[in-house]
Specification:
Layout (H helix, E strand, L loop, with lengths): L2 H12 L21 E5 L2 E4 L4 E4 L14 H11 L10 H13 L5 E5 L2 H16 L3 E5 L17 H4 L10 H4 L2 E4 L4 H11 L3 E6 L13 H14 L2 E5 L11 H6 L5 E4 L10 E5 L1 H4 L18 H13 L5 H22 L5 E5 L2 E5 L8 H6 L2 H13 L2 E2 L8 E2 L6 H21 L1
Parallel strand pairs: 3-13, 5-6, 5-7, 7-8, 8-9
Antiparallel strand pairs: 1-2, 2-3, 4-10, 9-10, 11-12, 12-14
Helix pairs in contact: 2-11, 3-11, 7-8, 12-15, 14-15
The structure holds ligand KE4.
Length: 429
């Protein structure tokens, strides 16, 4: 037995499914999850000391590459001064000022400890601000595991084919309306019928939890216009896309200003940090200023904030996003080239440092398109790549992430592995 198999068997005795987050369990791709023991730059090492080129990057945070020395030093420096105080610190002000400077739509911001906390709090805030109950989300989008959002959601729920979680009372779910992504006409019709009851629309402005699915400009513009006209709050869930697709997230790429933005992942640099923020008049409703309660023992934790501030400052280096986009495009163009050379029905797409691979003719515009792709073939490709030392996200419903440490040499090694993997699945089929 490999060490991964030994650890997985041991883990399942005391941890449900052997993992602390379902998507890590390899349930959709099959096989034994790899237990990582260390990471550096673009690489991770598993329990058998096998090295992989990593395209999960902790699901987005590792945009600088794993274990960036400056981030590690900032964490060490903060830790020696104490791990947590339960009292305000100057570092939290610096983080808030940085986020509000980097995202013009963010006039005020509250730090939390995860993306789930950020979206859960933003939803409650939108309901408190508007006095309305109905929220709108889109099938295949995942906003964390708060009850009202686990309705036809993406990520692990899609992987396991249970888009609506057990344990969510019908009473909760009935306030959540789910529409199709990239279908603005559905939002038009809904608002025409019940616009004055809608508290908010929450959307992944570029979707990454049903694989990478890009929005049409018309889709995002329609949501912005409808929310403005009907007094609903437009929430861009940029937990994954924030500082990943560009220096100002999707709102900077598409030049559409949400009322609230939720953040996570990269703003913690791999440590537990989430945030929600936006219009000052809306944020004024949050306790202790206003009647919408929200709190957290470790919110703004000084060690996590030190990692986040250091990461965000390193992203401001001139040319960072050009380099990130260039490396990601090299990967995607290379994969498309290798697949075409080998006659594989396959395509890859990207935006900024985020990419998707699909066993279909064209990149998807909706969840239905992803469902129609050859997911069984993806699973075989996933394992062939893993065998070749490349660690892709273990689900056809997840996006991939590049860092600035994925140099030309690393990308070219990935393309060699892909050539080998396509050959392997073609021989096997
Ligand atoms: P967390 O609570 O996992 O920090 O964030 C939830 C969340 C909210 N919004 C978006 C757009 C997200 O992508 C996420 C979390 N993303 C998944 C990756 N598909 C996290 C991986 C996991 O669940 O283990």
């Amino acid at each position: 037995m490999s060490q991964n198999e030994v650890l997985f068997a041991r883990a399942q005795k005391t941890i449900p499914g052997g993992v602390n987050s379902p998507v890590r369990a390899f349930r959709s791709v099959g096989g034994t999850p790899r237990f990582f023991k260390r990471a550096s730059g673009p690489h991770v090492w598993d329990a058998d000391d096998k090295r992989y080129i990593d395209y999960i990057g902790s699901w987005g945070p590792a945009v600088l590459g794993h274990a960036h020395p400056d981030v590690i030093a900032a964490v060490q420096q903060a830790a020696v001064n104490g791990l947590s105080f339960g009292a305000p610190t100057e570092a939290e002000i610096e983080m808030a000022e940085l986020l509000c400077r980097l995202l013009p739509s963010m006039e005020q911001v509250r730090l939390v400890s995860s993306g789930t906390e950020a979206t859960m709090s933003a939803i409650r805030l939108a309901r408190g601000f508007t006095g309305r109950s109905t929220i709108v989300k889109f099938e295949g989008c995942y906003h964390g595991h708060a009850d009202s959002l686990l309705v036809k959601a993406g990520s692990g729920l899609l992987t396991f084919g249970n888009p609506t979680s057990a344990g969510v009372p019908a009473d909760f779910a009935r306030h959540t309306v789910v529409l199709d992504y990239n279908r603005p006409e559905q939002a038009e019709a809904l608002f025409a019928e019940q616009g004055d009851q809608i508290a908010c629309v929450i959307v992944e402005p570029v979707a990454g939890n049903m694989n990478l699915v890009k929005p049409s400009l018309a889709f995002l513009k329609t949501l912005r216009d409808l929310c403005t006209r009907h007094g609903a709050v437009l929430i861009f869930d940029e937990v994954m896309t924030g500082f990943r697709v560009g220096p100002q997230g999707v709102q900077g790429v598409y030049n559409i200003k949400p009322d609230l933005t939720t953040l996570g992942k990269i703003i913690g640099g791999g440590m537990p940090v989430g945030a929600f923020g936006g219009r000052r008049d809306i944020m004024a409703c949050i306790a202790p200023l206003g009647p919408v309660y929200q709190a957290g023992t470790l919110s703004g934790n000084p060690v996590a904030v030190a990692a986040g501030i250091t990461t965000l400052k390193l992203l401001q280096r001139p040319g960072f996003y050009e380099q990130l986009g260039r490396q990601t495009a090299r990967l995607v163009d290379g994969l498309n080239g290798v697949a075409a050379e080998m006659g594989e029905t396959f395509c890859a797409d990207s935006i900024g440092g985020m990419f998707g691979v699909y066993f279909s003719e064209h990149p998807p515009a909706t969840l239905a398109d992803v469902n129609d792709s050859d997911r069984a073939r993806f699973n075989r490709f996933f394992h062939a790549m893993l065998d070749a030392g490349v660690d892709l996200a273990p689900s056809a419903f997840e996006a991939g992430f590049v860092s600035v440490t994925h140099t030309d040499e690393v990308i070219d090694a990935t393309l060699d592995a892909a050539r080998q993997a396509f050959r392997q699945i073609q021989v096997a089929s």
